[in-house]
Amino acid sequence: MTGTASLATVTVTYRPELVILRKQLDQLPRDALRIVVDNASPEPLRVCLRTLVAEEGAVLIENDANLGLAAATNIGVAHALRAGVQRVLFLDQDTEPGVTGVADLCAAHDRLHTSDPRPSCIGPRLIDFTTGLDHGFHQQRGWRWVRVWPPRGAPPVPCVNLNGSGTLVPSAILVALGGLEDDLFIDHVDTEWAFRVLAAGFGLYGAPDVAFGHRMGEKTWRFWWWGWRVWPYRSPLRHRYLFRNAVRLMHRPYVPRVFKTWAVVKLLVTFCVHALFDSARAQQTRAMLQGVADGWRAERTGKSSD
Hints:
Layout: E1 7-13, H1 18-27, E2 33-39, H2 43-56, E3 59-63, H3 69-82, E4 87-92, H4 101-112, E5 120-128, E6 137-141, E7 144-148, E8 157-158, E9 168-170, H5 171-177, H6 189-199, E10 203-214, E11 219-224, E12 228-233, H7 236-250, H8 257-277, H9 281-301
Parallel strand pairs: 1-2, 1-4, 2-3, 5-10
Antiparallel strand pairs: 4-9, 6-7, 8-10, 11-12
């Protein structure tokens, strides 16, 4: 079945802005199974969330603790698969697909089968609401990890990674691979998933014709380094997860070597920027170093440290 009639959407929330979440739910197809999985938001907010989801005719699953993005997504996916859907769309709480965005993405996915019969994931272009920046798609060219911006009207382009929010996944892939890796919690969850999809022989594509609005990161940070620079600012806790999970991926045989090489460079740059310019440099450096230690320990012992 094509279109959105056999589609489920899974939105993971934690302390969501209800105005934005209502916009998202309003923009999702009404014939889709719309699932919201809440990661233990404060009770006063959850009361409002229950009312909102009920008004929208969606399904709300409430976790008793913050299980992280990956585990919460998997809970929603399990509910969707039990309902017998053929495709699942992953969404963050702050993504707005637009009135026709999901239908357009499903149509692009349907057309993709004419050129690649494999089960394949597909994602839209993500446009940051704050900066207006089009984040393009990631490809590997030799030893370069590059972003590309295909023109509108171009066919779906093969990718080596997709942002988790907006990724449309056939149920066959979810059944075969078992879902996202719970233990990663948040950062690089989508990265690990993309590499596992490709390693298993499935397809991963971006749809140049489809754009979702998205809010990237916690906030942006301006600092001066021979000219003003803009940097995605993360809290020390988020940096701990980012560094931990990047180190963990470097131990995985199915992760491309080019990613591992550029990940080392990016982590070093991130460390230097925050160690030199961040007013919370002591907390940031401790968190990043702890993340490296946690990641190394987790892959050596098989035990994660949250």
